[in-house]
Design brief:
- It is built from eleven helices and eleven strands.
- It has helices at about 55-70, 75-90, 100-115, 125-140, 155-160, 180-190, 230-235, 275-280, 295-305, 305-310, 315-330; strands at about 20-25, 25-30, 35-40, 45, 145-150, 170-175, 195-200, 210-220, 240-250, 285-295, 340-350.
- The strands form two sheets. A seven-stranded mixed β-sheet has the order 7-6-5-8-9-11-10, with helices on both faces. Strands 1-2-3-4 form a four-stranded antiparallel β-sheet.
- The two termini are about 30 Å apart.
């Protein structure tokens, strides 16, 4: 946990700068002096959750451990904060919110991948998003910039795409609701200047205003409860002229026919975002300077029928992707079923009124 960047952490409930709980030069937690609430650390990963999504199973024992490691005389005020937090988390003992329903599915996936050492082949996503990263880096250098990867998972988008354009002064901040996902990400990430935070994408993120240069939504918004509306709360984080990079599934008409194709196992909250809602959010203070739509049912069918070939041959993959884009430009105007199911987008923050 790079201590020089811990001043970036704020309380998700009140935005007050968090204070570290340091025992013998080891950070074991944080606290908010305004809310009088404590946040634990697990495996050098701060767990900074808004009060609505505090998690008994994950946090209660960790905070009890903090209490046990503090001497009563030296930290009497902090003990009050700890007890207050334990009472708050006890109320969540029998509750499960949207985020944690999804977390169980993904954490099992990450644990299995970490134990077997077998990495998922992400070539389809990497090759699809290369054009997005190229367009971004033509507009903005990533050297010395701060990149926030919301819902980072195992971190393949940073590892295989963004990290190539960063230098040692670039800061990569990875956030996710899954501790196992963050562990897996960290084990594979060779970029030393990285910070891992467990938090919820649906609530205020624990960072100050105007601190992020590149904010990434790689397939995370459609898993959240608030979908595109998360942009409204997150845009405060982005510096002027900073960028949003987004790759998401969008709504399209479907045929009510039984599928003959095998379905992948999916998490509880698999959904889509509204293209209209997305662009409405981005019209508030942002300039969209790159948009690409693709992912018709034709491409889905080709990925099912020729999956191995498309994952192992870039040329073969691009052949079907270009045909798919052609369908979007032609047939989608005639047959709604052939509208794009995915959108790739870049937007730049322009509105000075968003500055604090």
């Amino acid at each position: 946990m790079p201590k020089e960047h811990l001043e970036l952490l704020v309380c998700p409930d009140c935005k007050e700068n968090l204070k570290k709980i340091d025992i013998r030069n080891t950070i074991i937690g944080f606290y908010c002096p305004r809310c009088k609430i404590v946040y634990p650390v697990k495996d050098d990963i701060p767990i900074i959750l808004a009060k609505e999504v505090r998690n008994y199973n994950l946090e209660y024992t960790l905070i009890k451990e903090i209490k046990n490691r503090l001497s009563n005389n030296s930290f009497s005020e902090l003990h009050k904060y700890i007890n207050r937090t334990l009472n708050l988390i006890m109320l969540k003992k029998t509750m499960s919110t949207w985020e944690w329903e999804d977390e169980e599915f993904w954490s099992k996936k990450y644990v299995q991948e970490r134990k077997t050492g077998i990495q998922k082949n992400w070539n389809d996503r990497i090759w699809q998003r290369e054009v997005l990263i190229k367009e971004l880096t033509n507009q903005l250098s990533l050297k010395g910039k701060t990149v926030l990867d919301i819902g980072c998972g195992e971190g393949q988008n940073f590892k295989f795409l963004l990290s190539k354009y960063c230098d040692e002064n670039s800061l990569y901040i990875a956030t996710d609701i899954s501790l196992e996902g963050l562990r897996l990400n960290r084990s594979r990430n060779t970029h030393k200047n990285s910070l891992y935070i467990l938090c919820s994408a649906d609530y205020e993120l624990p960072f100050p205003d105007n601190t992020i240069d590149i904010l990434c939504y790689f397939g995370i918004l459609h898993h959240t409860k608030n979908k595109s509306n998360n942009i409204e709360k997150d845009k405060r984080l982005i510096r002027k002229n900073g960028c949003i990079i987004l790759a998401e599934t969008i709504d399209r008409p479907t045929l009510l026919l039984p599928s003959v194709m095998p379905k992948d196992e999916t998490s509880v909250h698999e959904g889509h975002i509204s293209k209209k809602d997305l662009l409405t959010q981005l019209n508030k203070g942002f300039e969209v300077f790159f948009v690409k739509e693709e992912g018709t049912p034709f491409f889905t069918a080709m990925m099912t029928l020729f999956r191995n070939s498309m994952l192992n041959s870039k040329e073969f993959f691009y052949l079907f992707l270009n045909l798919d884009i052609l369908f979007v430009k032609t047939l989608s105007h005639i047959i709604p079923f052939f509208r794009a199911g995915e959108i790739l987008l870049l937007a730049r923050r322009r509105d000075i009124s968003l500055e604090t």
